[in-house]
Amino acid sequence: MNRETTNRIRFVMEELVPPLLRDSPAFHSLMRLAWGRHIDDLARFRERAAFLSDEEYAELYRNHPRVHKGTDNSAACIERIAQDVTGDSVADIGCGTGVLLEHIRSANPGLKRLAGIDFVIDDAARLDGIEYHAARIEALPFDDGEFDTVVCTHVLEHVLDFRQSLAELRRVAARRLIVVVPREREYRYSFNPHFNFFPYRHSFLRAAFPIPEKHQCVDVGRDIYYVEDRPAAGIGNEHAEAA
């Protein structure tokens, strides 16, 4: 299944099904018909977010079925990411299978360094010319400004320590940071192991404060696409506004 298909399903479930029904035992029963008891595991996962051990966190993701083939990104987001890459080094934080890096390299053949980082890299395609690192987003093993462009798609909605994760992304990005998160609402029963929910662009901008002056924040389908240019010294938000 591709991202475009799941976005259509999400539109029906999040916008057309009323909240009273989405959180009801009846809806829970329907979800269990589709995904079995994993739906219960996901609900408990969110309820216990503040108390999860690293082992519990990793275990749920090992058992979570992969919905999208290759990448969680839509074709429109992939195209924008490839166009917005700047400089000659790129890190994809939360690279998954590594497919997005392949698209980035195809569109930017002059890149000198590509790195894929995930807390588990067993599924990575291990493409030639791409380095892979197993690491948590909250503590990236790189120097300040080590990569010209840092890309992070469909990751920040999963992390418990959102601010520390974003701070790390900004720390290792020398010139540009690109983030994609789903535009979605929180409900009790869901197919996704998400902790953070952003129903509007300004929901994400509040969470990502402070916002540098040079940034874009736009809707791409049912995803929020955010780009910021890293300021040379400090971060100011006096004149920041969403595109």
Question: Could you provide a short overview of the structure?
Answer:
With 243 residues, the chain is an alpha/beta fold. It has one domain (1-243): 3-Layer(aba) Sandwich (Rossmann fold).
Explain what this protein looks like in three dimensions.
Mean pLDDT is 86; it is low at 233-243. The protein has 243 residues and is an alpha/beta fold. The protein is 35% helix and 19% strand. It has a single domain, classed as Vaccinia Virus protein VP39 (Rossmann fold, 3-Layer(aba) Sandwich), CATH 3.40.50. The longest helix is centred in the first third of the chain and has 14 residues, at 3-16. Strands 3-2-1-4-5-7-6 form a seven-stranded mixed β-sheet, with helices on both faces.
